[in-house]
Amino acid sequence: MPSASARGMRSETAKAPPRLHVAAASLGYDKHLISEDLSVSIPDESFTVIVGPNACGKSTLLRGLSRLLKPSAGRVILDGADIGSYKAKEVARRLGLLPQTSLAPDGITVADLVARGRYPYQGFIRQWTEDDEQAVARAMDQTAVTDLSGRLVDELSGGQRQRVWVAMALAQHTSIMLLDEPTTFLDITHQIELMELFTDLHHVGHTLVAVLHDLNHAARYGTHLIAMKDGAIVAEGTPDQVVTAELVEEVFGLRCLVVPDPVAGTPQVVPLGRERSDKHTQESH
After folding, report:
1. CB 35 within 8 A of CB 230
2. Pick from 62, 125, 116: which is nearest to 92 by CA?
3. DSSP 8-state class, residue 109
4. Sign (positive/negative) of CA torsion 7, 12, 13, 18?
5. CA quadruple 252, 258, 264, 266: dihedral positive or negative?
6. What digits encode the pLDDT tens for the residues 66-124?
7. Do strands 207-211 and 47-51 pair parallel, antiparallel, or not at all (unpaired)?
8. Exposed, middle or buried, 86 (CB in 10 Å: 0-12/13-18/19+)?
9. How far, in whole angstroms, is CA 215 from its chain's centroid?
10. What is the rounded CA–CA span in Å between residue 46 and residue 222?
């Protein structure tokens, strides 16, 4: 059960309904239920980050938000309607998804992969247009991959590939982007570059929803945090409201100190080792 302090962190209800929210949804795989009676709203034009321990339901929630996973009960609402009521291409025009693992077809170039982001706008009558060309060029420019346009995707570094996949999502020209562990397997430099890119996208009006493992990245770059444990939402709010030593221990089972980030001023988690944790406990008494 959420603690009283955690329950008190819930954000106030917005005056206008958010574009994307979950209403009393049950999410899981086959007969294995992950989350039951889950309700949460994604603030418009926020950089929302979902955090929590492994297997707590973070990616499951994101898959529900993207329509990859259909709730067994309840609904996911997108722009005032059940997300299941839209055709696939209509959903793809409204939100983009960067999945946890992305595999490019063999022999495809960067430009060709990014151009696949325009698929939701193609049809029997409407073929490739100047608008499509401009959308692809703009997406590659925003992600700094224009110089790589003729390169094969499988020849790129991990950081470069991630930028290409983000460019493809941007080419969809959606205002909502869902990102499932986008920094996994990247070195620290590429992690920061990618998080800075997402911040830039947020600043120009995109609503971002990301699943992240790194609490310090979540606190520095996110504007709204959702903390999960055992398939339930334990707390949500600003980084200052959510990232506290008490909540980190409650959710992750980790003894820590939370101090101001010396650069950003946001909460920074400093784990306590076993000996340091015992010493800190004695000193606090």
Report:
1. no
2. 116
3. B
4. negative
5. positive
6. 999 999 999 999 999 999 999 999 999 999 999 887 788 899 999 999 999 998 888 76
7. parallel
8. middle
9. 13
10. 8
